[in-house]
């Protein structure tokens, strides 16, 4: 006798937190993150640029993307790949000119795509004019950054103000002779923290927002928001028990993360956005759920939901995925804003590398079919994998600071290599055989052009499932989640139409009963069309199952029924 997995008792129905029929564009968008250095090189210098992005907007449109976010494109010494900005109001010449940027905004809007910029408020580059003037105590820049005279020991020696550690490792304080003081940098030494206790800084950064809003951008992804403000008593943070004072995990971040002042500053930015029409602000925040959700209340349109990055992995059980989904959705019952699902970005290992192919596909389906915003990091739609990078080729400061022995574990370069467009030179990314980071050697077979030709490719899955986002059930339907046994996660989206998804995370076939979810209930002969099934990436579009009380779900497979 076939074993029929009976319904797990936990069944949750979420009826709000999804988009309404007259939803704003940012409430239900498919958002695509472009890492400009690695997306498309138009001038053969081996680094991606704005004209390259413009030339590939069709790929976004064909992939049902509604908005794209550009990682930083501003002038930068590129210590942290553009997150060290030396002029908040310009375009780095590697990426093009202001005219190129304006042309890109126009092309995006002509194609009905929204364009979102990275706003990096926590720090600038140490090459920024503000820092150079602050170093020399030139007004009004003297207190633009977080300076401290240091702690005087009983023997008269001056030492670092406290035990704060930088995210990239080692002390967060660096001494400058010119100023006879330490400055704070929560990231690299070359990224001094701006001082939000200073009203001039608060004003200046609001003007940065206005500058780009006047250029018609549609919104901002706000970088590293949890680090924005610090407790100005500059006390030591409690120790965690980790014995290495150079490790970020050495201290418990009670004074350098999630400070209340940060939320007030965010509210001020929202007021600036509201001076314009229909602009959106989304926050990059790595914090606990409470401190993350709070951004919905304090001005953000939404904080990114990193649950599928931080809380699940290749070993997670179906219940772990359900927990990640339900905990976010429960919060959506009380906040005014869309849910959102992020499975990858330029700071984390590639989705396929983290989860393995079959699970990565399941996670892609989750991000695309759960309520709200779906976020895709460029390359994840074709299942790009991490690229091994030698120590000599390493660019990421987090890798460089870790040294030759530790860089492979710390570096984020493996997830940042050029997009694999086709099987020509440099994967069609550049005409130059030397690219800023090496192209993954697997590009010969793993590339967009090849995947377009194959019905069971990662991209075919991505495109087919993305197309479902136009259905009312996915756009604005309620969500039901349930466990069908230990290994099978089920969710459904209901409106006037329905979409059902079963994901078997286990390594053996399971037989499930969907009759409790499908009206009229408890009838065995309802026709369900399999829209897509991933069985080692084979798909079965068009197959019809008749008995919904005994549907077979192969091992490691996601099946979408409509
Ligand atoms: C978060 C960005 O995503 C990351 O790439 C960068 O290194 C830090 N913020 C510092 O700006």
UniProtKB/TrEMBL annotation:
Name the reaction it catalyses: Hydrolysis of terminal, non-reducing (1->4)-linked alpha-D-glucose residues with release of alpha-D-glucose
Annotated signal peptide: 1-19
What single Pfam family name could you report for this chain, choosing any that match?
A: Alpha-amylase
- The catalytic activity of this protein is classed by the Enzyme Commission as 3.2.1.20
Domain Glycosyl hydrolase family 13 catalytic span(s) in chain numbering: 33-416
Q: Which GO terms describe its molecular function?
A: alpha-1,4-glucosidase activity
Q: Which InterPro entries match?
A: GH, GH13_cat_dom, O16G_dom_2
Per the record, the GO terms for biological process are: carbohydrate metabolic process
Keywords of this entry: Glycoprotein, Glycosidase, Hydrolase, Signal
What is the similarity comment for this entry? Belongs to the glycosyl hydrolase 13 family.
Q: What is this protein called?
A: alpha-glucosidase
């Amino acid at each position: 006798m076939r074993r029929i997995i009976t319904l797990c008792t936990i069944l949750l129905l979420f009826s709000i937190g999804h988009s309404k029929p007259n939803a704003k564009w940012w409430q239900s968008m498919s958002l695509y993150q472009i890492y400009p250095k690695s997306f498309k090189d138009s001038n053969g210098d081996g680094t991606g640029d704005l004209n390259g992005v413009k030339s590939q907007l069709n790929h976004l449109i064909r992939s049902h993307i509604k908005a794209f976010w550009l990682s930083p494109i501003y002038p930068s010494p590129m210590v942290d790949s553009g997150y060290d900005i030396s002029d908040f109001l310009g375009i780095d010449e590697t990426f093009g000119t202001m005219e190129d940027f304006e042309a890109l905004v126009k092309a995006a809007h002509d194609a009905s795509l929204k364009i979102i910029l990275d706003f990096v408020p926590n720090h600038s580059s140490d090459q920024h004019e503000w820092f150079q003037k602050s170093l020399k105590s030139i007004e009004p820049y003297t207190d633009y950054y977080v300076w401290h005279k240091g702690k005087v020991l009983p023997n008269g020696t001056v030492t670092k103000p406290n035990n704060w550690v930088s995210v990239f490792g080692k002390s967060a304080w660096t001494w400058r002779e010119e100023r006879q003081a330490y400055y704070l940098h929560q990231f690299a030494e070359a990224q001094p923290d701006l001082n939000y206790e200073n009203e001039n800084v608060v004003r200046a950064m609001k003007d940065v927002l206005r500058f780009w809003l006047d250029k018609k951008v549609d919104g901002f992804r706000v970088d590293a928001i949890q680090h924005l403000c610090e407790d100005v008593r500059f006390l030591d943070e409690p120790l965690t028990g980790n014995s290495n004072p150079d490790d970020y995990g050495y201290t418990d971040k009670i004074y350098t993360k999630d400070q209340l002042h940060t939320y007030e500053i965010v509210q001020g930015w929202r007021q600036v956005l509201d001076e314009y029409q229909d602009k959106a602000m989304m926050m990059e925040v790595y914090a606990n759920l409470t401190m993350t959700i709070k951004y919905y209340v304090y001005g953000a349109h939404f904080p990114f939901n990193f649950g599928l990055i931080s809380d699940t992995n290749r070993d997670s059980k179906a219940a772990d995925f359900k927990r990640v989904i339900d905990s976010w959705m429960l919060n959506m019952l009380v906040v005014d804003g869309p849910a959102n699902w992020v499975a990858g970005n330029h700071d984390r290992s590639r989705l396929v590398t983290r989860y393995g192919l079959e699970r990565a596909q399941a996670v892609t389906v989750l991000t695309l079919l759960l309520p709200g915003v779906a976020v895709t990091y460029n390359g994840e739609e074709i299942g790009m994998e991490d690229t091994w990078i030698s120590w000599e080729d390493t660019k990421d400061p987090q890798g460089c600071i870790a040294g030759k022995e530790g860089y492979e574990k710390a570096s984020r370069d493996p997830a940042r290599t050029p997009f694999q467009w086709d099987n020509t030179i440099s994967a069609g990314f550049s005409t130059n055989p030397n690219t800023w980071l090496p192209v993954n050697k697997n590009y010969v077979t793993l590339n967009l052009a090849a995947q377009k030709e194959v019905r069971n490719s990662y991209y075919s899955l991505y495109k087919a499932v993305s197309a479902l986002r136009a259905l009312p059930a996915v756009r604005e339907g309620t969500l039901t989640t349930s466990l069908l046994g230990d290994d099978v996660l089920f969710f459904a989206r209901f409106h006037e139409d329905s979409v059902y998804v079963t994901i078997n995370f286990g390594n053996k076939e399971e037989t499930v009963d969907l009759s409790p979810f499908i009206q009229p209930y408890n009838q065995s002969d309802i026709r369900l069309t399999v829209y897509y099934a991933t069985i080692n990436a084979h798909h079965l579009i068009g197959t019809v199952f008749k008995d919904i009380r005994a549907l077979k779900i192969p091992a490691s497979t996601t099946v979408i029924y409509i």
